[in-house]
Specification:
By secondary structure, the protein is of the alpha+beta class. The chain has twelve helices and 25 strands. The longest helix has 14 residues, at about 520-535.
Length: about 525
């Protein structure tokens, strides 16, 4: 939610060339669709300022495997519309091929390399998700790649949903660093929004280390807020290396392809899965109500409702101004008004994410980010150590899970908590959470108001998230409502939101959970416990 670049006039950081990725590289590209199935025609649209270029397509799983390539293709420089951010680039097709039947479902990286360009500006990255044929899954679990969130943060061509836009196109390149980041730091800390703090260090509350890293490599400020390289890549490399088999889909596939979830036992969401359409959410709720299982290992999940328009080309979200600016609010039909592209928990929409996830951003959004718990543990405190989630970990009551890798960080989801007669946390209710959710672990997190964000990654100049949530949920902004939504948490909860005949939902509420998979055996074991248990009905 928070990777914004406009700040109040007194605190705004000076513009930097890294902030605008448009036409930064000699080669730039995007695919004609976000996802494909075997047998579809894949198109790649390329802008290359040198005479020739090469292209490679990799399936990126445990390793990057080359599946197709072409060399010495002719470069061309099509015009880019001034409104490419919202309307798309409209570049002609440069490469077209029929997706072979033997290509495996997965995330595919399209790498275009311009001949004769400086090395640091010679490569353009594009991507697509290859899904299994609808109704014919090749695995028991489906990972939904959060491509809606990628699109929201992407400012290539002009504006993103964080820099004044309310419509963003899928038909344009993604910003530098979202797909691949060859210069990622070996420490795996400097390119994180919630940088783990080692013993004796002070937290980087103003985000200066992050800014220095991205400026050094000409990366836009949002490159670590969303994208394959930051989040899903970490899960996929770990999972496929561990023998976990999953199929893949994009966010929009759940709306565009009815029946896509048929035959799966488990739906997976990881990292930063913030933007959901009505059709996407409806499909997931039908799946869970029918006995399918959902594992959300994500933070700030399902916070904003979006509309996908123009035959799937454009995503619309009015966000903080939706109750004022989204034209559907003026409708006399309540069913139309609930399609407002604002917060799912907004009273106009009336479908808080807590009702399916058991947690939401209004009850805990930021951890170790700016002034939000800057010296926090970066870990979940275990309470119900006998729960099946912790089987085989050796964790006991009060232990910290994931501290070494800062798995609770950046953005989170939480719920209202109280304690039972045994001093164990339980959901307090009153926030839309299902009655029977079980809280197994949590960590304090917080919402932020103006002046509390990292100085280098500032909030919008008119409102912070804390003020916004207080106003929309409680109808006013004063000391009382601010206090009611300031003190939150990141939770690990298990529930069955649609009753005994429905499926299970596990929420591990932090964007940065995936950072612990490769190096923390307990984090890996908890994740494997979820997949093994919920990956079969």
């Amino acid at each position: 939610m928070a990777a914004r670049y406009g700040a109040s006039p007194m605190t705004a950081p000076a513009p930097h060339p890294s902030d605008d990725p448009t036409h930064h590289d000699a080669a730039e590209a995007y695919c004609g669709r976000v996802s494909y199935a075997p047998g579809d025609e894949l198109t790649v649209h390329v802008r290359c300022t040198t005479e020739r270029y090469d292209v490679e397509i990799f399936r990126w799983g445990a390793t990057r495997d080359l599946v197709w390539s072409a060399t010495d293709l002719p470069g061309s420089v099509p015009d880019t519309p001034a409104d490419a951010d919202a309307a798309g680039c409209g570049w002609p097709v440069s490469i077209a091929l029929t997706v072979p039947a033997d290509w495996r479902s997965g995330f595919h990286h399209v790498r275009v390399r311009a001949h004769g360009a400086p090395e640091e500006r010679s490569i353009g990255d594009a991507c697509f998700v290859l899904r299994a044929p609808t109704g014919a899954p090749t695995a028991r679990a489906l990972l939904v790649v959060a491509t809606n969130t990628y699109n929201a943060y992407n400012s290539w061509g002009g504006r993103s949903l964080y820099t004044g836009g309310h419509a963003v196109s899928y038909r344009r390149p993604l910003g530098r660093g979202m797909i691949d980041r060859p210069h990622a730091p070996a420490t795996d800390r400097d390119d994180r929004k919630a940088r783990p703090v080692h013993r004796g260090e002070a937290p980087d509350t103003d985000g200066e280390i992050y800014q220095q890293y991205r400026h050094r490599h000409d990366l836009p400020g949002y490159m670590s807020s969303a994208g394959w390289f930051t989040y899903e890549r970490r899960f996929v490399e770990w999972a496929e290396s561990a023998g976990v088999v999953v199929d893949y889909a994009a966010s929009t596939d759940l709306e565009e392809h009815p029946g896509l979830l048929d035959g799966y036992d488990l739906l997976l969401s990881v990292g930063h899965d913030e933007y959901w359409s009505v059709g996407q959410r409806d499909a997931v709720e039908r799946f869970v109500a029918g006995g399918g299982n959902l594992a959300s290992m994500s933070g700030n999940t399902m916070f904003w409702q979006v509309r996908v328009e123009d035959d799937g080309d454009t995503m619309v979200c009015h966000k903080y101004k939706a109750h004022l600016a989204d034209p559907v609010v003026a409708s006399a039909d309540p069913a139309i008004r609930t399609g407002m592209t604002g917060m799912w928990a907004d009273p106009i929409v009336g479908r808080p994410e807590t009702s399916i996830l058991g947690a939401g951003s209004a009850w805990g959004l930021y951890s170790r980010f700016g002034q939000a718990t800057p010296r926090g543990a970066g870990a979940f405190t275990v309470y119900r150590d006998g729960h099946w989630l912790f089987e085989g970990t050796g964790l006991r009551y009060g232990d910290l899970l994931g501290a070494d890798h800062g798995v609770v960080g950046y953005e989170t989801v939480g719920c209202r908590l109280t304690f039972d007669e045994y001093q164990l946390p339980i959901a307090a209710g009153g926030d839309g959470t299902p009655d029977d959710i079980e809280v197994v672990a949590f960590c304090p997190s917080s919402n932020l108001r103006m002046g509390e964000y990292p100085a280098s990654i500032a909030a919008l100049d008119d409102q912070g998230d804390l003020e916004f949530v207080a106003e929309r949920i409680h109808g006013r902004v004063d000391d009382d409502t601010i206090a009611r939504v300031r003190h939150g948490n990141a939770v690990m909860v298990v529930g069955r939101p649609f009753g005994p005949s429905g499926g299970d939902v596990v929420t591990i509420g932090s964007t940065d959970w995936v950072y612990g998979l490769a190096g923390d055996p307990a984090v890996a074991r908890v994740t494997r416990n979820v997949i093994d248990r919920l990956g079969r009905r």
